[in-house]
Amino acid sequence: MHTHTQRYHFDFEEYNSIHELLPNDAQLLKKAQEVTAMAYAPYSKFHVGAAAILSNGEIITGTNQENASFPAGTCAERSLLTTAATLFPNVPIHTMAISYHNHNGTSNSPISPCGICRQALAEYETRTHQGIRLILGGQEGKVFVIPRATMLLPLVFTAEDMK
Ligand code: THU
Q1: PROSITE patterns this protein is in (predicted)?
Q2: Which of 63, 93, 103, 116 could anchor a disulfide with 45, C-beta 3.0 to 4.6 Å?
Q3: Which atom of ligand 1 approaches the CA of 73 most closely?
Q4: CATH 3.40.140.10 assigned to 13-150
Q5: Is there a catalytic annotation at residue 160?
């Protein structure tokens, strides 16, 4: 017998297209769409791009970089986090846009970060004491805006848990 049923819930915004976004958000998503061209994805042919604006106004990007030894490859989101932390250590990321293009050109719906990237995003939020807003969209079609990356990771494990 359990004593309570706990419920996890979060709200996010859904837009029918990039054209419905505020200009700065549309610009960031466009950057993420464009930077997919820099992805190195000869194995999956799934080209992912991320673009973020930091709280200091800097814009940085990341792409997936694959490897013949598949697990050695890195996702676009974690490439971006590594770049951000190297160029601007401890500066919060205000918003990160994530896009992709795929083999057959059907990138018309949002993708959301993989589990490992969710964990890495969570660490960044903790480290910088600020949530990371996510804009998710393909090359066309619907766009999701998620207020904080950790909303995608219920019961997240953080340094707090090791105290
Ligand atoms: N990938 C990303 O870069 N980000 C995601 O959110 C999903 C997956 C990459 C990893 C791999 O290079 C390819 O996409 C296929 O999984």
Answers
A1: CYT_DCMP_DEAMINASES_1, CYT_DCMP_DEAMINASES_2
A2: 103
A3: 12
A4: yes
A5: no
